[in-house]
Amino acid sequence: MNSIKLDISKVYSFASEKSIVALKTKAEAANKALHDKSGKGNDFLGWVNLPSSITDAQLADIEATAHRLQSEIDVVVVIGIGGSYLGAKALVEAKSDTFAHLKGNSKAPFVLFAGQNIGEDYMSELLELLDQKRYGVVVISKSGTTTEPAIAFRILKEHLENKVGVDKAKELIVAVTDGSKGALRTLATQMGYKTYVIPDDVGGRFSVLTPVGLVPLAIGGIDIRQLVKGAADMENATQSQVAFENNLAAQYAATRYALYQGGKKIEILANYENKLHFLAEWWKQLYGESEGKDGLGIFPASVDLTADLHSMGQYIQEGERTLFETVLSVQKNKHHLTIPSDKANLDSLNFLTGKNIDYVNKMAELGTMLAHVDGGVPNIRIELPENNEYYLGQLLYFFEKACGISGYLLGVNPFDQPGVEAYKKNMFALLEKPGFEEETKKIKERL
Questions:
Q1: Residue 289: active-site member
Q2: What φ, ψ does residue 113 adopt, rounded to 5°?
Q3: Which of 28, 148, 289, 325 is catalytic?
Q4: pLDDT digits 0-9 by tens, 288-338
Q5: From the candidates 310, 335, 336, 343, which is the catalytic residue?
Q6: CB crowding 146-170: b at 16 or more within 10 Å, else e
């Protein structure tokens, strides 16, 4: 299998190779616990063997829905938040032509998102656009009552029904939700929406390879078969019986933990390909929500380089030495563009004449890595041979598997998120939601 590559050699002066290898037994035990479901949060381990369990029939059904909608709409609005949003957003941004909607040559509906915020201006401007477009909706929510997406769906459902009629709107709405219960499941059954099921044993931040991610991606023209194949190959390459020396996910998890033990509390995911910006956003939820509990965890942050070298570069180079970088690098680009010569050479760039833009980018990456390591910032490097669905599938599963192992190394349950409920309780009290009267009273006394 041609694969993504992991290079941890630039951390050895901060966490020795010996200290990382010393974690081999613990990392292998953590990986085994994921597969035999003997660890914390074992009710939510359906993602572990998910890629290899996805059938041709399941993919064909999703593709059929995608093809039907592609023939009828110009825009698809995906409604979701957190894990019901970030995976699809990451892959759409990674694989779509950045300017296709402006060029007017997109072969698939333009993918927009709603329900990922409570922005009144955002929603109003979206509705103004949709007034002029043929559009459909993919609403993603296990319960159907999560505030942000529920508000967005209520508004967009009404808008679409008013625009095309209730009967036609039914054909243009797809619901990805619980298999048997919840508000959205009830509505979808009543209205006759096409539906897909969110597995009970897969948490939101691990759900990108379920219909949560696959349905909107297929509608948006992403090759979901190659995505799943890449993930399945990485699943096989990181099985519990694969030795630590050959298991990229176990090595990454152990390296992160060794750095954490040495006082490196912040991990910066740095990408040198701007199309991967939202993959970093997906990664931040995956690791932040999985590890940040019980007073423990590495804080996940991200930067887009080289752009952020002109904003965050100073801190990374000379700020408090509590951080390390994991660098995402793409070996081969789809396009090739060279730098022309200029007779006047006022910008003094003629020394780059004939050089490929990506060559300059790669030299910036290498130079930055050396500077940061010299400045006390350990660097892990992950290389994708190409930015395509197959290698992105590998990368997604690699990060998921490493996250599960990392959580167990920390000693936390990487599959719950009790802290997420704190803000909701206060918000509902402030909104005076029925059933929160006592909380409302307490909140008002504090204000």
A1: yes
A2: -130, 145
A3: 289
A4: 999 999 999 999 999 999 999 999 999 999 999 999 999 999 999 989 999
A5: 310
A6: bebbbebbebbbebbbeebeeeebb
